[in-house]
Amino acid sequence: MAWNVCQTCSRVLIFKPICMKSFFISLFIAVCANLSVFAQTKFSISYEDTVNVGEPVKIKYIVEDDKEFEITPKPLKIKNSFMELLAGPYTSTNTSFKMDNGKLIRHKSIILEYSFLCSKSGKHLVPSLTVTDSNGNEYSSLEGMSFYVIDDEKNQKKKMVDTDKQKILEIVAVVDKNKISLGDSIKCQIHLFTNLDVVSLNTLKDLEVDNAIRHEIPTDTQKTFKETIYKEMPVKTVLLDEYYLIPLQAGTIKIENASFKALYSEHDPNIDPIEAFFNAKSCRIERDSVLTIKSVYFKVTPKELYNKNINTTAVANTRSSVGIVLDRSSSLFATEDTLRANYYQLENDFMKRFLPNINRNYDLTIFAKHPYKIFKDDLQEYANSIKDSNNDGSAVYDAILSAITDRETGKIDKKSIILLTDGSDNCSRISANTLTNILLENGIRVDVVAFASKIDSVYYVFKDSIDTNGDDIYDDVELRNTLIEHGQNLDNIKEIATATGGVFIQVCNETQLSEAIQQIQNAISFEKRPLKKPAKMFKPDRGMLVKLFKEIYDVSKIPL
User: Fold this and answer.
1) How far is Cα 322 from Cα 344, in angstroms, rounded to an integer?
2) Which H helix or E strand runs over 224?
3) Residue 62's closest CA among 38, 39, 42, 37?
4) How would you classify residue 102: left for phi > 0, otherwise alpha for psi between -120 and 50, otherwise beta?
5) Among candidates 488, 495, 370, which has minimal Cα distance to 427?
6) CA–CA dist 283, 268 (Å, integer)
7) What is the 3-state secondary structure (H, E, C) of 171-196?
8) Inter-residue contact 297 to 256 (CB < 8 Å)
9) 113, 76 Cβ separation under 8 angstroms
């Protein structure tokens, strides 16, 4: 949509759209208590002015500026009792560049999309939305804008016919409530909606929730589709993942960044119909698509929970020097074609050559699905413990959090951490950002040796792809063995090391071990400390932080 500026003043900016359809309008208003400082910030609303009864109403709130910014939405002001919030906000960000007087200017827009359902025809008010930027400035949409809901059966049926031709393949995060008190939890479900023949689904990036504790709720490993209605269309749906989320602080919590790679099968339109009739299997083609959930927000109100004198997370009087964290997840046992040894063997060789020369007090934490603090003479016992275990997983962030504490007291007692892993976290209670802030708050450095495994996760295989005899309809055995290039997970580990002043070393084969050992030894000798401070938005409640540390401390006593 194109926009024309029709009026500008020091207090209010008013924009008017060029309408593309007679029934479609957008009105732009920016109202700001401190607009003299942020005169270039623009706030617009986009929506359809006419919809049918029972038809979802999508309203987009758009904030724009020529500088970097972030916003946090406040609860919507819904004044009509016949209007129900279905979903949202779904957040997307667009960035573009333009030339102004020979200068390259970056333009950013953040779009907050909500879906509503109106159960009664007539005129309805567009809910007013207020957002807050990182500096505490508020921006509000104009009140009084409206749209019409009509009861038109013919238009409804026509729309259903048109939408039947659409392809639906979406991942959606759904929370059971939008507002809770500190100390309470919400349930978050990740659903797939589709009208396509999905063969498999691979997790590229796990759900991220900063400043919160995440508890995964076990779901069936064998995913089964159910019939439902989504966007007024008959589709199949399946529950992919389910979590309880417990915030560590009051304010707005953001759920974001989960992404998946879907492989689906469809008929090849270029195949002769007669051939397709007699040989349907060979007339199908496979396509893939990367799916990302839209961000979801919920509000956390403050609440007095615990005795403020609780000091379980205090720094011990005497710190040990180093905590060594060793990955024992099954991905380390994968052997790439370019390697004579798997990554577990490389990790084991590193430890044999490194430990005799460390010259520092240290203790050991191993991890798979959860961390486990061990005594030094227990290391060999757990050398091969997880390869075929039901405890397989990769809780990298939880393991680091466990490693910074004393095994007996639970108090923070480390100056630095050495992490040996293939870099793929998929089941920690906390996010990478939350861990980083805790490390920075306590002045702890993390040095990383990352083994460059390409194997990141396993495909979901749906029952719909299995025939009555239990055989896979699709012959492509590579579905079970596809190598997935490392993405954000490995990057997250690198970012933790960089933020805390540590080194990040990638090891792919035996010849790189000697240099990696030398770099880690140098890092320990220099005892470099983090220079960064925790993010300003990181303000955890002391009681909730104690709760987190206690969880990690308790689970680290359980053998893998």
Assistant:
1) 21
2) none
3) 42
4) left
5) 370
6) 6
7) EEEEECCCEEECCCCEEEEEEEEECC
8) no
9) no
Contact 369, 392 (CB under 8 A): yes
d(CA 324, CA 404): 9
Q: Which residues pair with 204 in a beta bridge?
A: none
Distance of CA 474 to the CA centre of its chain: 31
pLDDT tens-place string over residues 384-400: 554 445 567 889 999 99
pLDDT for the residue numbered 78: 81
Average pLDDT, integer, range 330-342: 61
Cα–Cα distance measured from residue 167 to residue 235, given in angstroms and rounded to the nearest whole number: 10
> Which residue has tokens 């957040």?
91
d(CA 255, CA 243): 11
- Distance, in Å, from the CA atom of 559 to the CA atom of 380, rounded to the nearest integer, reads 14
Reply yes or no on whether the pLDDT at 536 is more than 70: yes
Classify burial at 93, counting beta carbons within 10 Å of its beta carbon; exposed 0-12, middle 13-18, buried 19 or more: exposed
Strands (E) across 380-430 are located at: 412-421
The full 3-state SS of 293-306, as one line of letters, equals CCCEEEEEECCCCC
**Are 422 and 489 in contact, with CB atoms under 8 Å apart?**
no
Tell me how far apart the alpha carbons of residues 446 and 532 are, in angstroms, rounded to a whole number: 13
Which amino acid is it at 529?
R
What H or E segment, with its residue span, contains residue 543?
helix 542-555
Q: What are the C-alpha distances in Å from 166 to residues 161, 195, 479?
A: 10, 9, 27
Could you tell me the domains of the chain? 3-151 (2.60.40.10), 168-301 (2.60.40), 315-555 (3.40.50.410)
- The token pair at 67 is 């500088």
- What is the spatial distance between Cα 276 and Cα 284, in angstroms, rounded to a whole number? 9
Nearest to 43 by CA among 140, 144, 143: 140
In whole angstroms, what is the distance from residue 522 CA to residue 238 CA? 50
> Which positions ≥6 away from 460 have C-beta within 8 Å?
200, 201, 202, 223, 240
Taking only the tens place, the pLDDT of each residue in 91-118 is: 888 877 766 666 777 778 888 888 888 8
CA-CA distance, 377 to 300, in Å (whole number)?
45
Q: Which residue has the higher pLDDT, 17 or 471?
A: 471
DSSP structural state of residue 334: -
Other Cβ atoms closer than 10 A to 217 = 12
The model's confidence at residue 281, banded by pLDDT at 50, 70 and 90, is low
pTM above 0.70, yes or no: no
* The one-letter amino acid at 458: V
